[in-house]
Structures are given as C-alpha cells and as structure tokens.
Design brief:
With 453 residues, this protein is an alpha+beta fold. The chain has six helices and 14 strands. The strands form three sheets. Strands 3, 4, 5, 7, 8, 9, 10 and 12 form an eight-stranded mixed β-sheet that branches.
Length: 453
C-alpha cells in the first residue's frame, strides 16, 4: 500500500518544480495510531506470543540528594531510559519525506510495567508525558525520577565509610518468558556518563556504578531483575574538623594538665571542664549515628574510650589531691605541735634559771654560816664546794641534752609520717602519666589502622 502525500507546486521565474510535504500526522494516520485504538496499548506488542519482549534499560545518576543513616534511606535523582520493540509499528521513511521518528503521548502505546524493588515512596517529580517511536518499531521512554529507596548503610567506619546502595528493576506481571531485561550500555559507560553529568556538591562523592542481571523465583515463575549498584564515598573533612579533631585536642589538653601543680584546685577544675566539653561532642555524635547498627562504629569507640580515659584521669587527680591535702594537714599539725613545744621549752628554761638563782643564794648563805662556824679548814671546804657545784651543773646539762634528743627524735618521726602521703601522691601521679601516654598512643594507632583499612 502506497501512501499519497500532498504535492506543493512552487513556481519560480526560471521554471517550476514540485516538492512533497509530509507531517507527523501522516505517519499516525498511516499506522492508524490514535488514543482510542486499544490494539496498541492493551497487550504486549509481539506478533508471536511465544517471543519475549526485549527491554533495554539505562540508569544515569544525576544527583545524590541524601543518604540518611538513621532511616537507612538512599535518595538519588536518576534518569531512567527504557527501550523496547513494538512489532506492530513500522514505516518506510522514504514514503514520508524521510521521517524516521515521531513523538507521541505515552497513553497511546503499551509500555513495560517496570517497578523498583527498594522504592518506598511514590515519585513526586514531574513526569515526561511523551515517548519516542522510531520507524523500525523501537520505542524509547525517558523518565527523570527522584527515588526514595531503602539501603543497608554500614556506618562502622564513619566518617571514612564507603556505601553501596542498589536500585533493582523488574516487571510486575511479566516473567522471564515474556520480558527480558538487558542494560543497553556497558558498565564503564554508565559510570562515565554519571560522572560527567553528576550535579552534587554535598556530603557524598560518587565512585562507581555497576549493573548485574539476576533471576528471582517467586512461586513457579522466574523473574528477571536488573540491579544497579551505586558506590559512594563520604566526604569526611567536615566531620573530621567538627568532631574528631576537637575530641583529640581535648585529649591533648588533658595530657597537658598533668603539668599543673597538684596542690592547687585549678587542675581538678580544668579536667572537669574538659570532660564536660567531650560530653557535648558525644551528644552531637548521637544525633549523627543511627540508633540501630550491627557493630559499634569506630567513631563511637574512639569517643567513648577517650571519654573513659579522661574520666579515669579525673579520678586519679581526685586521689592525688586528697593525698596532698592529707599531707598538708599533717604538716600543719606538726607545725602547731612544734610551736607549742618551743613555748614549753622557753617556760622551762625560765624556771630553771630561777631555781639556779635560788640555789646560788642558798649556797652563799650556807657558805657564810659555815665560815662563821668553821674557820680552820677553810681551803679544803672551799675546794669541796666548788667540786660539788661543777658536778651538779654537769648533771643538769646532761639531763637537758637527753630531753632535747628525745624531742628531736619525736619531731623527726612526725615529719617522716606526715611526708609519706606526699611521696605516695607523687609516685601515683608519675606512674599514671606514663600509663596514660602509653594507652593513648596504642589506642590512637589501632583506631587509625582500622579506619585506613
């Protein structure tokens, strides 16, 4: 059957010639393709029902809108390109002025009933109402879709994590014997196109797009599925500067606080302030990480261990401060005791001087009486009195030296007893500082190794 096109005669001054003018409506009239014709949209467009319809798919990632850890949700904006062959449609472009394709509303033709497995929310983006039909029966449809899908997000290495989320597409009613799904481009071209047009400046960096063909058995029927896997790496700079580095700086400040004097209250107050600051950062971390996770994230381990070390350091500071205060109290008691004993020694010395003066007066009176009674052996009695005075003075000096020695031994014993707490506090502080530095160095080395592998 030949199609009769309109002839337009155009006359020029140097002659005349005719030109055939065609329209898209001519093609539609030739195909008898109208909105009311149910032949083209009710059944699968094959001449032999045993032959499956081959559907070729392309997904190009246009933007990564969000990856929400708490709700395990992946929200990309993609272009879905679908192509299949309609065996009931074909025309010769030579008969229609070289027209090779037409654009028609989607309601006029059958289209595969494809859906996305992981999609949990209806797409509310504007839909493209048209599809493109080629002269050989190839039908192409393009859709821009905001996909809100479920994705298993592993935050174990947050914020240095890499996530892989899938978009799986299959037919809702046609099994593998009726619809076959194939990617129209290779894996490298998928990734290249996505990288070229990707319009995202957010938290995630697109790395790779891969596609695999899967067969799913439901009941007695086999369904073919195309799974597109998007690999993304998180941009960690923001989380490093806002969370990891501040916690590390507070840890360094806590280490530096060991050089503050223990007998003052500034060290204890400083450690409490640092501990409270880390507590605020832990609250921020709680808002970022999901509440349900198979493994404790490394960043949670990092913050909790540092918080525990700071808490242990605070308890050690309290112990050392207590021992120092105990030592100061002992020293104060010793000083008061020394002052009291010095006063007693002064009073005793004054009493001894008074008694010596009295004994001297009595001795003089007795000597005068003896001189009046015994005048003959004068020289011998004088010698005896001098010897007795010297011996009494030496005995008195010896007794005073013994008393002073006992007091000195007592004072030395009190000082040694009072300084024991101070020495113990210094040893505990020195040993804990070595332990603290060692544990912090080992822990940071392990956590960095885990993050980097």
């Amino acid at each position: 059957m030949m199609h009769l096109a309109f002839l337009l005669l155009i006359t020029f001054t140097d002659g005349t010639f005719s030109k055939e003018v065609c329209s898209y409506q001519d093609v539609l009239d030739y195909l008898n393709l109208t909105a009311d014709n149910s032949v083209f949209k009710t059944t699968r467009p094959v001449l032999d029902y045993k032959q499956p319809t081959v559907v070729k798919l392309d997904i190009i990632l246009y933007a990564i809108l969000a990856v929400i850890e708490k709700t395990q949700t992946f929200i990309p904006f993609v272009w879905l390109l679908t192509m299949w062959n309609n065996e009931r449609i074909s025309w010769d472009p030579a008969e229609f002025c070289g027209i090779t394709h037409i654009t028609i509303p989607k309601e006029m033709l059958w289209k595969p009933d494809l859906f996305i497995h992981e999609m949990v929310q209806k797409d509310d983006s504007p839909q493209n109402p048209y599809m493109r039909v080629s002269h050989d029966g190839t039908v192409a449809s393009e859709e821009a879709m905001k996909v809100v899908s479920i994705c298993k997000i592993d935050v174990y290495k947050f914020p240095f994590d890499t996530q892989r989320c899938n978009i799986s597409i299959r037919s809702a009613t046609n099994d593998v014997h009726e619809i076959r799904l194939f990617p129209s481009m290779g894996r490298s071209r998928f990734a290249k196109f996505s990288l070229d047009i990707l319009q995202t400046y957010g938290e995630w960096q697109f790395r790779e797009l891969s596609v695999t063909n899967l067969n799913l058995t439901i009941g007695q029927r086999l369904w073919e599925t195309l799974r597109y896997s998007f690999t993304m790496k998180r941009k960690a700079l923001l989380h490093v500067t806002n969370l990891l580095l501040p916690v590390l700086f507070f840890l360094i400040l806590d280490l530096a606080s060991f050089f503050i004097a223990d007998h003052r209250g500034e060290k204890l107050g400083f450690k409490v302030t640092v501990l409270l600051a880390v507590s605020v950062l832990l609250l921020i971390l709680n808002d970022i990480l999901p509440s349900v996770s198979n493994k404790i994230p490394l960043i949670a381990t990092y913050c909790i261990v540092i918080f525990a070390l700071m808490l242990l350091s605070l308890l050690e500071t309290i112990l050392v401060t207590y021992l120092m205060e105990k030592d100061s109290a002992s020293q104060e008691k010793l000083k008061l005791k020394d002052d009291r004993e010095d006063k007693q020694e002064t009073v005793k010395t004054k009493n001894c001087n008074t008694e010596e003066k009295k004994q001297t007066r009595c001795l003089c009176i007795c000597t005068a009486a003896d001189e009046s009674d015994e005048l003959l052996p004068m020289t011998q009695e004088v010698d005896n009195s001098i010897q007795s005075e010297e011996s009494n003075a030496l005995l008195q000096i010896l007794e005073e030296l013994k008393e002073l020695l006992n007091i000195l031994n007592l004072h030395l014993g009190c000082r040694q007893e009072g300084g024991t707490s101070g020495h113990l506090a210094a040893r505990i502080d020195r040993a804990f500082f070595i332990f603290y530095v060692t544990v912090v160095s080992l822990f940071l080395s392990v956590i960095i190794f885990e993050w980097s592998t």
